[in-house]
Design a protein that fits this description.
Largest sheet: 5 strands, mixed
Number of strands: 90
Structural class: mainly beta
Radius of gyration: 58 Å
Length: 1417
């Protein structure tokens, strides 16, 4: 027996029509409303007789006088004249016949009336004449094709009227097991069974069994369902082997839950599963299961995983592609044939690699396989909102490899491509990518493996007709289910090797189309699933072939998603509510499926539990689901069944109730509650509702006990210890996805009564798209309302509002309205009586409902908002204010949030209305909402109260301003000032007076801005009335002037003045830089300097250890604090504090261990403090102390080393026979040794060359009567134990009469000779010198940076010749070293004795130590 597709949003069996016949049958189904369902036997025969007469009504007979032969050629007028006499006679006969017929009809009507009057009397007599059933027309066998309908019918008579039941292979046919599959009818005594869509599994022997109290008779017929050749696998029914042991074909299989219509995405995973009951259930012998896609059997593999066992059959598709889209069928071979179930799987495109790129192609297949050539073809993707496809790329890879190679350089425009260059015997896979203007799609699923072989018979691509198909014809959409629509269309006129169709849908009112299928569909009809219930759609279709997609068809007509109109399903849950011995009150639940229209009728049948014959209880329809059945026999057991009806007709009856005994109830406890229903089902809660019992017992019902159990369990648990008085109960704490059942017991003073019938299972899970009730206030009317937007709705749905779960009905306190999916409950005059819990239920849905509790606080808030809307006030952004304008005008203004063009207003000053006129200007701007009044001459007379009153439609507003006393005086003063300012600004003036700024390089600028100037305007700076002339003259035409004050300090205090003037006037601006202004400038400097301060750097000097902090600018006026171990340091002989323009320093003289520890400097700018630290302890202190001792010793050595003080020239030019005396003063402690050299050879004292050294101070070299041989390079070396100096002199001798030789320049300069200096540890204290102590100047680098050690040349260098004769040392040019020497910030002590600039020191250059932290920023 075939099951039906389950929609994605609910697990209910719903029919999905997929055949032409089913669609035609549904469209042609006639709706009728039955008022009387059954009749007595003779009425039935009369009806059949009338129907037969109507069917056999004779055709119209041409009167004789109108007949003529074909060969009659007599003219018309002659023929009429000849037959006129005969015609009159015939007319008279016809009139006579009509009179007789009319009289007979009148008599017949009278007879029929008499028959009707006696009909009921006769029926009572006929009831007493029994007759067993008899088939007048028996069933006949049928042989039909698969997927076509078949109708079995028979005619049976008997008294009382027989009941006919249908059986398939001995098993009763239950239409409810497969809704839409079977339809059982009974019209005019003709019983029929219609099988809407035959499957091979429907092959069986069908029988109709007619039964009444006099007997039973049966009619049987065989139905054989065949499958067309080539349409799929052959029928397996005759192929099951007959084995003695148990075989899958001998198992009885019944489906429980089947997979619904499913939706997947490319690359995802989908599992299709059916649970079933197998009898007998043998683990080692599972049933034989086949899976099909679009009638093609699937084989297990990597793309389709199949398993069966554990009461389930499952198909898993692990890597979805659009090739997997289609109709999936599971077929299980059982004892009675096969059991089938089918449902559609939709696979949508995955997210594109780039926005707007097309979807992937599909169905890639190879045709015309040869040794080096193959033709690859595919199906194009559907393009709805994307740009058209411009072409395709084909890729290939060898089997076993993951490397893909693109076969075509440019996109191919048709869906086929010949691939060349294959290797014989190699296997390949192919894939395709689509291209459009937005990008390239994802690749398609790779094709099956193709082996390049010699040309043999293989599959070839059919069709050579060029071009795309023409557009499909008319598209028609009809109702199918509550979430699907049946679409069919006419084929294109020009098919051109059609591959299939793409169907697109669009919500009415929207411009966006969406694809309904993602793989070309071959047939002209399609069921579109996954639609929103109650929404309206239109559809279009495109045809597809290898050349692309056709033009779109015309759109279908709008169709609302509603179930197809059908009769309702059977009611259920018949329960007994009370009995008095002669009657039984029964109730039942409404049908699960209403058939697309409201259920408006119920018919009850009864029978004695010991008999088979059913009797009607009511001939007129019952609209309520409670009925009191009377005239029963006390002590007898009765069974009941209920049939529901709607505008489509009467549905199938319910299953018979359990036998109910008719006896009077006398118990004191209440009877059962009934009609259990659910509302507001959510993931963890729901609301259970029920109706009060009909039988209340000995006393009124006082409450109810609610019990709950999980589905399948009989262990009910009471949810409330105390009985609740109302007939609803909020259940919370549920497990999401778990199903539960409930029952209710009523309680009175006598105890707990009978339990209600167990409810239907309910799953704790909210419907997709569920929304809650919203509460709000209407912005136009001010009405307070509750509103719900339903997530689904049907044509017959109604919104039922309740307060505390009692329907509000026509309550005057509220009104309800509905529009589309939204319903609103509006309060008429809300107050505290309206507080409570409000709920709404949407009928004919799967439980759409919601609730909201209206609290007092929420109501009061909304009442305030409602009052504001109903009594509107013009909202004001700003109340009435005033501002002083230029010229001293005063502007009174207010601003509303919004103003219309119809706004009216007035200004009232001291209780008198002011109008626009002389002295007052009143205006408004609706765009900005500003209303203003300008008073041009503001004087003392304007003191008082100002008020603005405005009306804008229904809204009003008023704002006042009191302008008296000090507030008025301040306004008047400001107005007078602005008047004077206006006059001042008529000439050159300062638009901004003097102010100061501090630049990044710590220059203080006094700035001002000027206006209304010209080239002739003069600008002067003054300090204390003394004019200042800046280096750059002020440019007044630039609009701004500035006076820079570099290296700002206390000396720059004073009163500064800027004067601006020309023939139009004069203006002055003054700033007093003293007091707070001076402090502000110092703080601004400190802010820049502190932010730029470097980390503390350690620098050793001969006097001690110095900590230095470099910054952009430093002055002693800055608030700078040095600290040692958090203690402030004051400047003293031991701790000297000072600084330069670019750094602050603190020197520790003659350091000792007491000075170890953490040192810091704090620079405060009045807002924040900038702190830098240095840890002078441990190894850092040890290294620094050693360096200090070394420098101290080096300074002593430098002070006492031997040196040339002065007296020697660079170059000497002398005439032959003259005497040359080279004399100089030397100094050193101890007295240095003096040695003279000529051409680097020591000169000995002779008569010609005399060397003298007098008093340890004067050294001389005298050459008597010089000769040319005396020319050369002479030098003197002055040295003691602390070092010395080496000075060179160039001597040139020329003869008398010769021209004076040119001096030779470019010679190297004299250098000092390095002498090793003992380490501080081994150096004795230097002896005292008569010279004054050395001074230690602190270098100031141009840019703050980490100091670098000085570098000096350790080797002597030749001196430079002078272009002039020997001169005094004062005129001797200073020598320059050819080797560049980087500057060192380390201070170098000066010698007390002047040293010639030519001399270069020889001691080791001093070093410094720095902090391990990075240098300053």
């Amino acid at each position: 027996m075939e099951s039906k597709i389950i929609p994605w949003y609910k697990k209910k069996l719903v029919s999905h029509v997929k055949t032409d016949y089913a669609c035609h049958h549904m469209a042609q189904q006639v709706s009728q409303k039955t008022t009387v369902r059954k009749s007595v036997s003779h009425k039935q025969k009369s009806t059949e007789s009338q129907a037969s007469e109507a069917m056999a009504q004779p055709a119209y007979t041409v009167p004789a006088f109108r007949e003529r032969s074909q060969d009659d050629s007599t003219p018309e007028y002659q023929r009429v004249s000849a037959n006129v006499g005969r015609g009159l006679a015939v007319i008279q006969e016809e009139l006579h016949r009509m009179r007789v017929a009319t009289k007979a009809q009148v008599d017949n009507i009278a007879i029929q009336k008499e028959v009707k009057e006696k009909m009921f009397k006769r029926s009572e007599l006929l009831d007493d004449i029994g007759k067993m059933p008899d088939f007048l027309v028996a069933l006949r066998p049928h042989t039909v094709w698969e997927k076509t309908p078949v109708k079995l019918f028979c005619t049976v008579q008997g008294n009382p009227r027989p009941i006919v039941k249908w059986y398939k292979g001995g098993v009763p046919v239950d239409p409810l097991s497969a809704p839409g599959k079977y339809k059982i009818e009974n019209k005019y005594g003709v019983h029929s069974l219609i099988i809407s869509r035959c499957a091979v599994s429907d092959t069986a022997e069908y029988s109709a069994v007619a039964t009444n109290q006099h007997g039973t008779t049966t009619s049987k017929a065989m139905v054989i369902v065949k499958r067309a050749s080539g349409s799929g696998e052959p029928c397996h029914l005759g192929l099951v082997p007959h084995l003695s042991e148990i075989h899958p074909s001998k198992l009885e299989v019944t489906f429980l839950d089947c997979f619904p219509v499913s939706f997947g995405v490319e690359g995802g995973t989908v599992s299709l599963a059916c649970t079933m009951v197998v009898v007998p259930d043998l683990p080692n012998v599972p049933p034989l299961v086949h899976w099909y896609r679009d009638d093609k059997q699937l084989k297990p593999g990597q793309l389709a995983e199949m398993c069966v066992g554990g009461g389930a059959a499952r198909l898993t598709l692990p890597s979805l592609a659009k090739d997997d889209e289609g109709l999936y069928t599971v077929r299980i071979f059982a004892k009675d044939g096969t059991v089938d179930h089918s449902a559609y799987l939709f696979v949508s495109d995955a997210a594109p690699s780039s926005a707007g790129a097309p979807g992937a192609p599909m169905s890639v297949k190879a045709y015309d396989v040869n040794a080096d050539f193959v033709l690859v073809a595919w199906k194009p993707p559907n393009t709805v909102n994307e740009a058209p496809i411009s072409g395709y790329f084909v890729d290939r890879c060898e089997s076993g490899s993951d490397t893909w190679v693109q076969c075509n350089d440019s996109p191919v425009k048709v869906c086929k491509y010949p691939v060349h260059g294959l290797k014989l015997g190699h296997s390949y896979h192919f894939r395709v990518r689509a291209v459009n203007s937005a990008g390239i799609s994802r690749p398609s699923r790779k094709s099956d493996k193709v082996t390049a072989i010699d040309a043999v018979e293989n599959e070839r691509l059919q069709g050579t007709e060029e071009g795309v198909p023409s557009a499909p014809g008319q598209v028609t959409a009809t109702r199918n289910t509550k979430s699907s629509v049946f679409v069919q269309w006419d084929s294109p006129k020009h098919l051109k090797n059609l591959m299939g169709y793409y169907i697109d849908g669009r919500v009415v009112g929207s411009k966006e189309w969406f694809p309904c299928n993602h793989k070309p569909f071959k047939h002209n009809r399609f069921v579109v699933h996954g639609l929103v219930p109650g929404e309206t759609y239109v559809f279009r279709v495109q045809a597809v072939n290898v050349f692309g997609l056709s033009e779109e068809s015309q759109e279908s007509g709008p169709i609302t998603v509603e179930p197809a109109l059908a009769t309702p399903s059977a009611p259920f849950g018949i329960t007994m509510l009370s009995s008095d011995g002669s009657s039984i009150t029964v109730a039942w639940n409404s049908p699960k499926h209403c058939g697309g229209s409201k259920v408006n009728a119920y018919y009850i049948d009864k029978r004695n539990a010991d008999t088979l014959a059913w009797k009607e209880v009511n001939l007129q329809a019952v609209t309520e689901r409670v009925c009191k059945v009377e005239n029963l026999t006390e002590g007898t057991f009765y069974e009941f069944k209920i049939t529901a009806g709607n505008m489509a007709g009467v549905g199938v009856p319910s299953a018979p109730s359990t036998p109910m005994k008719c006896e009077a109830w006398t118990m004191d406890t209440p009877g059962p509650a009934y009609d259990l229903s659910f509302s507001e089902v959510r993931s963890h809660s729901l609301v259970l509702l029920w109706k009060a019992p009909v039988y209340i017992g000995a006393s009124p019902v006082t409450g109810y006990i609610v019990e709950m159990a999980k589905k399948g369990s009989k262990d009910f648990v009471a949810l409330n210890e105390e009985a609740v008085s109302h007939r609803y109960f909020q259940v919370s704490g549920l497990e999401e996805g778990q199903s539960y059942v409930f029952k209710v017991r009523a309680v009175n003073n006598s105890g707990v009564g009978k339990a209600s019938l167990v409810s239907e299972p309910v799953c704790a899970k909210a419907l997709p798209g569920t929304k809650e009730i919203e509460v709000g206030v209407d912005g136009e009317t001010g009405d307070i309302f509750l509103s719900l937007e339903a997530c689904e709705i049907s044509e017959t749905s109604k919104f039922v509002w309740s307060k505390n779960y009692s329907p509000v009905g026509d309550c005057p306190r509220v009104s309800t309205s509905s529009k589309g999916r939204t319903s609103r409950l509006t309060f008429t005059n809300p107050d505290k009586d309206d507080l409570g819990r409000y709920s709404v239920v949407v009928t004919d849905t799967d439980g759409v409902s919601g609730s909201h509790t209206l609290t007092e606080d929420a109501l009061n808030t909304m009442l305030e908002l409602s009052y504001a809307i109903r009594h509107p006030v013009v909202p004001l952004k700003h109340g009435l204010n005033y501002e002083i304008l230029e010229k001293g005008h005063v502007r009174f203004w207010l601003q509303a949030v919004k103003l219309s063009s119809a706004v009216s207003y007035r200004f009232i000053v001291n209780d008198k209305e002011v109008t626009s006129g002389e002295g007052h200007k009143i205006s408004h701007d609706a765009a900005t909402g500003v209303i203003q009044m300008i008073v041009e001459n503001f004087t003392r007379a304007n003191e008082g109260t100002y008020t603005v009153q405005l009306h804008d439609g229904k809204a009003k507003a008023q704002s006042s301003l009191v302008l008296v006393g000090d507030v008025f005086k301040a306004a008047l003063k400001e107005a007078e000032f602005q008047r004077k300012e206006f006059i001042r600004k008529q000439g050159p003036h300062f638009s901004e007076y003097l102010y100061f700024t501090v630049t990044e390089d710590c220059t203080v600028l006094l700035e001002c801005k000027v206006a209304n100037v010209k080239k002739e305007t003069a600008f002067h700076w003054y300090k204390e009335d003394e004019e200042i002339v800046p280096e750059t003259p002020p440019n007044v035409m630039s609009g701004a002037c500035a006076l820079p004050i570099p290296n700002f300090s206390r000396k720059d205090q004073g009163v500064y003045k800027a004067v601006l003037g020309d023939d139009k006037g004069k203006d002055t601006s003054v700033i007093d830089i003293s007091g707070q202004v001076f402090d502000d400038i110092i703080n601004a400097l400190a802010q820049v300097a502190g932010a730029s301060a470097s980390d503390l750097v350690l620098q050793c000097t001969p006097e001690g250890i110095r900590l230095q902090c470099y910054m952009k600018y430093y002055t002693e006026e800055m608030k700078t604090v040095w600290k040692h171990k958090e203690s402030k340091i004051a400047s003293s002989e031991k701790m000297r504090i000072g600084g330069t323009a670019e750094m602050a320093w603190m020197q520790i003289c003659d350091p000792s261990d007491k000075e170890k520890g953490q040192y810091s400097i704090e620079i405060s700018d009045g807002v924040q403090t900038h702190t830098r630290t240095f840890d002078l302890s441990g190894q850092a202190y040890t290294d620094a102390y050693d360096e200090y001792l070394r420098l101290k010793a080096a300074a002593f050595a430098e002070k006492n080393r031997g040196r040339v003080v002065g007296g020697l020239p660079d170059v000497v030019t002398i005439m032959e026979q003259k005497s040359l005396s080279l004399t100089c003063t030397v100094w050193g402690d101890p007295t240095p040794e003096v040695t003279w050299f000529k051409n680097e050879q020591e000169v000995a004292s002779t008569e010609h060359t005399k060397v003298t050294f007098d008093g340890g101070k004067f050294a001389s070299l005298v050459i008597n009567q010089v000769t040319p041989e005396d020319s050369g390079k002479y030098s003197i070396n002055v040295r003691n134990k602390y070092g010395g100096e080496f000075v060179e002199i160039t001597v040139s001798v020329y003869k008398h009469g010769e021209p004076l030789p040119e001096p030779k320049l470019g010679q190297a300069r004299p250098t000092s000779t390095p002498t090793p200096v003992a380490t501080p540890a081994s150096t004795p204290a230097p002896p005292k010198s008569p010279a004054p102590p050395s001074k230690t100047p602190t270098p100031t680098p141009s840019k703050p940076q980490t100091p670098a050690p000085s570098v000096k040349s350790p080797t002597p260098a030749p001196s430079m010749k002078s272009p002039t004769p020997a001169s005094t040392p004062a005129s001797t040019p200073a020598p320059k070293s050819p080797t560049p020497t980087p500057k060192s910030p380390t201070p170098t002590p000066k010698s007390p004795t002047p040293t010639p600039p030519r001399g270069v020191k020889s001691p080791t250059p001093p070093r410094f130590m720095k902090s391990p932290t990075p240098p300053r920023k």
